[in-house]
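RETRY 2/3 - previous attempt timed out on the joint model. Re-submitting the same 665-residue input unchanged.
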Amino acid sequence: MNAFEFMGLLCWIGAAVLVLWMVVDFFKVNITYDENYLLSSLEGHDEITEQEKKHRREREARA
Amino acid sequence: MTDQNTTSTESAPEKRISLLTVLGPAHVWALGVGIVLVGEYMGYNFSIGKGGALGSLISCWFIGLLYTCVAMVDSEVSATVASAGGQYSQAKHIVGPLMAFNVGLYLVFAYTMLEAADALVVGDLMVEAAHDFGFAGLDPKPFVVFTIAILAWLNYRGVFMTLTVNFIITAVAFVAIFVLFFAAQGWTPGVALHHKELLTKLPYGWLGVVAAFQFAIWYYLGIEGTCQAAEEVRSVSRALPLGTITGMMTLLIAATVTWYCTTGLVPWEYLGVSIIPQYDAARAFGNPIVKFVMFIGTLFSSLASANGTISDAARAWFAMARDRYLPVWFGAVHPKYRTPYRSIVFLIPVAISFGFTGLLDQVITFSILSGLLGYTFMSINMFKFRRQWPLGTIRRGYVHPFHPFPAITLFLLCCVTYFATYLGYGMELLALMTFYIAASVWFHFHRYKYVKRGDQFTMAWPRPQGY
Amino acid sequence: MAKDFEPLNGQGKQAYVPPEQGAGGQIFDTIFLLVMIYCVLLLPLTLGITAGNTVVKKPETITWETLGQNKVMQAQWEKLGMTAEDASEYICTHFIYKIEPISLAFTAIVIIGYFVLVIYFAGKEYQEVINEKFQ
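RETRY 2/3 succeeded.
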């Protein structure tokens, strides 16, 4: 086995670990949380609004 | 159902207040060039295969005109429909749900195929590097899978590279293009660049030049992604068109320099089918440092591009699911990482399957055609937008000049590019059209019954004229 | 279908209430989409149906001269690790640009028909959206 083939093997292992991590987390989240909660986001502004609210709270706390 | 309606209405002003308007023209420029730059490292060269070296250059400039029209037309609509949904959201508000479903699919497939192409290039780059070190016959598959897996994982966790990191990676790849130019003393023909001896007449005549339009799209595919930053731009009317147009100018220069260096080093017949043309040009140049720089440039541009495409494709799939255009199950957000995790996971095997084919030109063609269908939509969309809400009836972030000429030019150039694809890749064109037709039938006659009607229209605009 | 509509904010008009899709239906739709992606897009690729339309025409004797390569071209091919035999695979492969009126007309009808029908049906759906939104 040359260095490149060894790198290839590491890539297979690395990819398997990452995919396995995602699959485990995927099922864990699906089981742990209520489906309605997971599907509760609304178009376009949910993530940004959350982030902005957090920043606003921080600014107000500082003020 | 009523709750959702109420929330949407109430959240609209909050959305406008909450948006972080932090981006200036330079950011928009970086965003656009970052998405597209991989096109200067691979794929563009297939236009050389279809029309010869000079044919590719001519088509590169004509397609530059197509994208200038895209930038003008899309800047106006995006600056007005300032939503993260991009063209999908535009189609929903201006043309109708079936068009929006198709535009959503164009985005998903343009980006998923680009992601597959990026991974495929990383795999091939490793094979070539191994070959140069004396290890022939390396299997590219583990590198393809690992590239997609690690970037999908980063996107899944929401720890995807920030604009700054992507900017650095892109900047390195951008500089690498000029490293080859300076190393080869591009200003002194004959030292290392042999255009006089390597350039031939048009191998397929002017028909070949037209045929080259298909892959010349790859020089710029994705620049329209700048318009998706509309919500976060400080001064939309200034930054968006300025950033996009300067991005276009940068790409025109980068594309021309790329073409100039590679065609002066590599015979066009080889260049026309190469998967990693910049690296091959460096091999033909013979300097190991330049070869290493081109290796890094190709790798970085592919990773930066793939990183963005995984995010964009998954978000388009997610947005359609949230509107119930697709099974609503895909509309879930990860409670911890706040990412569309189901959509990300779902699209991984699709990207890997196409990456495994090793057929870069055909995978790229799927991406190009999906983009092209989107540009055709944009030209039609522009006419409908101006007719349904004439100037003065709604506040526009930017009004593009010379309407309707950019939209007409865009439409005509799209028609020429369909014809270009018919020349040589006609069956693939029909396969993709079959897919979109089947998907449209499925949506209209089956899927649409699960979609809420009035809730889809979220902009605070008056009733469109003619409806 | 009557239960699929509900009054819209006291204006007497009815808003469309879509049916809820169960898990089985969602799984079926997802599998259907995957089958469509793999059968219509991936399968033709792997079967070679969609490959670029090319032809290979090699000269009887393969030398740099018969391949029409000058000294500089030859040198660049060699820097890429190619012999004349290897290079002939690239040099002698050409695209076939044959414009067949029937296939061209068919392709044009497919693309134009697609856009016309999508915009037509999208327009009908859009009218429903606008009617409900602006009641």
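Residues 1-20 of chain B have pLDDT under 50 and may be disordered. Closing ticket.
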